[in-house]
């Protein structure tokens, strides 16, 4: 279980911070996929982006749980 993170006296859930970090990483990956033209191989771009975001979020949550516990 992640602890709360205090930013300026405001406590944020650890999952929220992980979700924001995963979104930033996913945006970089999406931009790279767009630049390389690999999106032409994807049938439904929005579903692919959602699935990719969930995979990145799961990986980051799992790694952060192992590193910081």
- Output the number of helix runs: 2
Q: Tell how many strands the DSSP assignment holds.
A: 2
User: Averaged pLDDT, please?
Assistant: 91
Give the biggest beta sheet: 2 strands, antiparallel
Provide the succession of SSEs.
EEHH
In percent, how much strand structure appears in the residues?
A: 5-15%
The rounded distance between the terminal residues' Cα atoms is 8 Å
Number of domains: 1
| pLDDT < 50 runs, ≥5 residues | none
Structure in a nutshell:
The chain is mainly α. The protein is about 65% helix and about 10% strand. InterPro entries: DUF1656 (IPR012451).
Task: Write structural notes for this entry.
Pfam families: DUF1656. Keywords: Cell membrane, Membrane, Transmembrane, Transmembrane helix. It comes from Mesorhizobium vachelliae. This is DUF1656 domain-containing protein. The chain has 69 residues and is mainly alpha-helical. The protein has one domain. A hairpin with a 2-residue loop joins strand 1 and strand 2.
């Amino acid at each position: 279980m992640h602890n709360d993170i205090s930013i300026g006296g405001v406590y944020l859930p650890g999952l929220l911070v992980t979700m924001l970090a995963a979104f930033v990483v996913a945006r970089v990956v999406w931009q790279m996929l767009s630049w390389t033209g690999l999106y032409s191989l994807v049938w439904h771009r929005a579903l692919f982006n959602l699935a990719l975001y969930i995979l990145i979020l799961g990986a980051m949550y799992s790694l952060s749980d192992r590193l910081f516990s």
